Amino acid sequence: MSVSIVNTLLEKTKEFSIEETLAFLANEYKDKVVFSTSFGQEDQVVTALIAKNDLPITIFTLDTGRLFQETYDVFHRTLKKYKKEIKVCFPEAAAVEKLLQEKGPNSFYESVENRKECCFIRKVAPLTKALKGNSIWITGLRAEQSENRNNLDLFEYDAHFDIIKFNPLLKWTLKDVQKYIDDNNVPQNALHKQGFISIGCAPCTRAIAEGEDIRAGRWSWESSHKECGLHQK
Predict the structure, then answer these.
(1) Which residues contact 220 (CB under 8 A, 6 or more apart)?
(2) Is the separation of the CB atoms in 104 and 111 below 8 Å?
(3) Where found (predicted)?
(4) CA angle, 85 as apex, 84 and 87 as ends, to 5°?
(5) What is the dihedral of CA 61, 143, 50, 83, to 10 degrees?
(6) What separation, in Å, do the N-terminal and C-terminal C-alpha atoms of the chain show?
């Protein structure tokens, strides 16, 4: 069933612009279309498209409790500019307390397993709650962000969260993203100008050098696939 829905959406929207597709989804799945933002460059573009067209799409963010101040700054500027509500989802306090009491505040540095546990508590569990009951999940994923994302489609079924994902910027390059931001005066995280391309939690993110992979700054002490569990590909 989910595969047929994906195919139908791909067919119906194949001639649509991103904005037309967003409007179509908002109308087709009333009150069941959500967009998750981490306030990165791609997400800021999608937020701008939603806000500019005054689309009835719920925007939410995951506050892990360990974000950069610069992320909160762009969050604030985004609210001021677009006057659109952004729902904030927090991890369960009891789960965070238990993790820190049993393993300390920096257990994620000790193993991939520990890091993924922290990601699950702070990101995956809140996301699961935020997506529940919705039909379409809009993301800011781009194919060139990582090898894992090269085989993504514009629409796909995410079995883990039981939801259809729409990846509107899938074929955009980083230059495309930056041009849209510059041309439309979109607020962006100040860290992007300091070599931070992919920005997550402060302890788990560093700037990258010229020529390094875009995801090299995430969990730089690991040789894993550099994913936190929000996106299974």
Answers:
(1) 206
(2) no
(3) Cytoplasm
(4) 150
(5) 40
(6) 21
Q: What is this structure's pTM?
A: 0.91
Helix segments in the chain, DSSP class H: 2-12, 18-28, 41-52, 69-82, 93-103, 112-119, 125-131, 174-184
pLDDT at residue 108, as a whole number: 95
- Which residues carry a binding-site annotation? 118-119, 201, 204
Q: What is the pairing mode between strands 163-166 and 155-158? A: antiparallel
7 close to 109: Cβ distance less than 8 angstroms: no
Report the amino acid identity of residue 215.
R
**Block means of pLDDT (10 residues each) for the chain, length 233 residues?**
88 96 98 97 98 97 98 98 98 98 96 95 97 97 74 90 96 95 97 92 92 84 63 51
Q: Is residue 32 within 8 Å of residue 58, measured between CB atoms?
A: no
Burial of 56 per CB tally in 10 Å (0-12, 13-18, 19+)? exposed
DSSP alpha helix (H) spans, 31-92: 41-52, 69-82
Choice among 23, 55, 59, 228 that is catalytic: 228
Assess if residue 26 is contained within a domain.
yes
Domain count, the chain: 1
228 is catalytic: yes
CB 16 within 8 A of CB 138: no
Strands 86-89 and 33-36: unpaired
Question: Whole domain around residue 164: which residue ranges?
Answer: 1-93+133-193
Residues of the binding site for [4Fe-4S] cluster? 118-119, 201, 204
- Is residue 212 in some structural domain? no
Q: What is the CATH number of the domain that holds 137?
A: 3.40.50.620
